[in-house]
Amino acid sequence: MYIPKYFEVTNVKVIHKLIHDYPLATLVTTSANGLNANHIPMHLTDTLESYGTLRGHVARSNPLLEDIHGENQSLAIFHGPNAYITPTWYETKKEHGKVVPTWNYVVVHAYGNLQIVDKPEWLRTQIEALTDQNESQFSEPWAITDAPVEFTEKLFESIVGIEMKITKLLGKWKVSQNQPLENQLSVIKGLKDKQQQDMADLIGKNEF
Description:
The chain is α+β, with helices and mostly antiparallel strands. It has helices at residues 12-21, 64-67, 120-135, 149-157, 181-193, 197-205; strands at 8-9, 24-31, 34-41, 43-45, 53-59, 73-85, 102-117, 159-174.
C-alpha cells in the first residue's frame, strides 16, 4: 500500500481502535488458483505480541481453510470511514481554481500467518468476545446463552476457528492533512451537510 508520509499512522493504539470499531476484515490469502479474498469479522485480542492477535471463525465448508498452511503470509484489511471530496468544497477554488476531486478514507493492513484452531472452548470464547464487543452498543445486548443450547451447539459443529498473530501493521489516514486549514474547515462543513459526520470528525481531530 502506498502511504505518503503525511497520511501515515504508526500509533498502534489508534490502529487498534479502528480494528475494534470496524471489525469486518477483507482477509486476503494465496490459494492454488491465485489470490482469494473473504470478508470475515475478526476480534482483536491484545497479547504479549506488540501488534496483537486477530481471531475469527469460518464455515468448515469454506475453501479458505485449504489456503491455511501456517507458512504463507496473509493480509487482513480493515476499512474505516470514507467519503468523496468535491473540489467545490475547497475555499481555495475561489482564489485560483487549482483543485481537483479526491477520496478521503481510513484503512489498516494487518499481516501475519493464519492458523486453524479446531478447539470447542477456544471457538466459544472467540464468538462470545466478538458478540459481546458488537452487542455492547445496544441497550438490551443479545448473548449466546439467549439461544437454545441444542441450536447453538449444532452451529458450533459447523464452524472452525482461525487465528492470525499480527507481525506487521500499516495505517493510512487520508483525511485532508495535505490541505490548508481553510480547505479543511470548508470540507468539514461540506461533509456535515452530507451527513458524513464520521469523516468530518476525523478531519477535525487530525491527531493520530
